């Protein structure tokens, strides 16, 4: 199996047979775990046990094929980050794997991208991997309802809950720290807030936006949506077709483009971007002060950089919309080579390695276009 079409037509057993010789699976097979929490042995053994438990779930027959496939790939990558993160605590002698979920998410994203998996599917799996360990520890949160409500806009709680059950059952633990009652509590809180099978229903887009910025005074508050203007952030790697998308979909908007500013200032993509960013911020402010809709065209493939721009636009009361473009890699590389100011491949590879596609927690509206 070398393509996503092959994967979609495969059985669970076929997928495991495909995965086992992959470098990331072999690394898991060679990675030991703490015997107190994982007496079954290495990480790959645990992974296969989790897949088996997924198929035994009472909920399994109720899931459509696509959801089952999401769960299978969540299982494959949920602990795939352990080989790169496993350490032995010098004080306790216990084996730990700090931040392995983040590493597993990045690895899973890369593998699914190489297989030709669709962008929305890939990111749903990536986020399930990233947050797979949250349900057992809900009682440790100061505001459990907020935890569940917030994640309902990032993952499907039906799938997260089902996976947590399989992950808990797919191990031999001398010290069970993942009681299923805690998982049932996660489901109960989600159901109480009507977000188990759908994202939580905020009063409006602005209420959701303020919630994720920790600026919503109450879930029952309905803020006014009297935006001063609309700021459209068009993001994606160099060569994804951001200019083309803007010309086709926002032809009348003035555009603040980092590429254009670099050209005007004669600054290379690998050079110091300080003056470029400063000029872009001032151009954005001019539109914001004039209450004029505009588009902002920049790479912005990392959450940190997008947040800085969102903070600026929110300060002026704009409605913020993010459009993320990611065609197949071969298309990106080809279009980048055809650019007048081509981005060096080493820069493109670095951006690809740090890629963080946006989620619906970041703006009033987010669209992923693959």
From TrEMBL:
Residues 43-137 form the HD domain. One of its GO terms (molecular function) is nucleotide binding. It holds the Pfam family HD. Keywords: Nucleotide-binding. PANTHER family: MULTIFUNCTIONAL CCA PROTEIN (PTHR47545:SF1). This is HD domain-containing protein.
């Amino acid at each position: 199996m070398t393509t996503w079409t092959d994967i979609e037509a495969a059985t669970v057993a076929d997928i495991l047979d495909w995965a086992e010789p992959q470098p990331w699976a072999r690394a898991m097979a060679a990675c030991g775990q703490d015997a107190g929490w994982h007496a079954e042995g290495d990480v790959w053994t645990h992974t296969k046990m989790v897949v088996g438990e997924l198929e035994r779930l009472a909920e399994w027959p109720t899931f459509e094929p696509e959801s089952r496939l999401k769960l299978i790939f969540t299982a494959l990558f949920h602990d795939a980050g352990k080989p790169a993160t496993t350490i032995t605590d010098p004080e306790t002698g216990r084996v730990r794997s700090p931040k392995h979920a983040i590493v597993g998410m990045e690895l899973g994203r890369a593998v699914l991208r190489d297989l030709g998996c669709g962008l929305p599917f890939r990111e749903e799996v990536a986020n399930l991997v990233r947050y797979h360990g949250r349900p057992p520890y809900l009682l440790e949160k100061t505001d459990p309802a907020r935890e569940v409500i917030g994640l309902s806009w990032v993952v499907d709680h039906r799938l997260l809950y089902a996976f947590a059950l399989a992950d808990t059952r797919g191990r031999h633990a001398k010290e069970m720290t993942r009681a299923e009652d805690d998982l049932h509590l996660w489901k109960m809180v989600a159901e109480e807030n009507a977000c188990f099978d759908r994202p939580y229903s905020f009063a409006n887009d602005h209420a959701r936006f303020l919630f994720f910025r920790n600026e919503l005074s109450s879930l029952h508050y309905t803020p006014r949506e009297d935006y001063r203007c609309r700021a459209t952030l068009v993001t994606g790697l160099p060569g994804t077709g951001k200019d083309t998308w803007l010309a086709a979909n926002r032809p009348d908007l003035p555009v603040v483009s980092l590429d254009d500013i670099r050209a005007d200032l004669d600054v290379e993509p690998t050079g110091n971007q300080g003056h470029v960013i400063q000029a872009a911020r001032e151009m954005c402010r001019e539109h914001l002060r004039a209450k004029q809709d505009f588009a902002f065209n920049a790479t912005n493939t990392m959450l940190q950089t997008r947040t800085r721009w969102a903070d600026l636009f929110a300060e002026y009361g704009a409605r913020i919309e993010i459009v993320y473009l990611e065609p197949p890699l071969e298309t990106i590389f080809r279009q980048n080579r055809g650019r007048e100011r081509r981005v060096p491949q080493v820069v493109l590879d670095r951006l690809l390695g740090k890629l963080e596609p946006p989620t619906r927690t970041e703006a009033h509206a987010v669209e992923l276009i693959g």
